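Q: Could you fold this chain for me?
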Amino acid sequence: MVPIAEALRIAEERELDLVEVSGQADPPVCRILDYGKYKFQQQKREKDARKKTKGQVVKEMKMRPKIDLHDYNFKVRAVKDFLLSGYRVKVAVFFRGREMAFLDRGREVLDKVVRDCEGIGKVDMPPRMEGRYMRLMLMPVPQSPKKAKKPEAEGSDEKEVINKEEPAKA
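A: Sure. Below is the predicted structure, expressed as C-alpha cells.
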C-alpha cells in the first residue's frame, strides 16, 4: 500500500498516468500506466470482437395482393434460397389505392408463403400492417445433414466393391 502522493510522484517520474482501477475497494486500487495506450488497446480489442460477430442480414421480398401464379412461384423460390443460405427474410405485400380495402387478400398471400416455406423457415414475426405494407418475418430453420442412401442402394454398392476386389486377388 503506497500513499497517493508517492504514487503520483512515481507516475510523473516514469511519465505515465495514475489510473484508479477499483474505487469501491478499501483502500482504492490504482495502477501506473500509459492511459492513451490503454484506451487504444481497449478500442482495438472491441473492434476485433465486432469483426468476429456475424451481422444478421435481412433480405426482403415484395409482393402484391393480386400477384400472378408464375411471379409468386418465382419469388417464393428466391425466398427459399435466401432461407437455405441462412438469411432472415422479410416478406412484404404492398397495397395501392383501393387494395387497402382487401387486406385479407394480402394475408392470404403471406399465409401461402408460410405454407410453401414450411420446413425451411419459420415465422419470426407474424404478419402486421406497417403503413401500406403488410410484413412478415421468416427465419431459417436449422437444416439436418443429408441422410445416407437407402439400404437397398448401399447393398448393391457393396456387391460391386466385392466383385471389383475378387479379380484383383486372382
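A (continued): The domain at 4-52 is CATH 3.10.20.80 (Ubiquitin-like (UB roll)).
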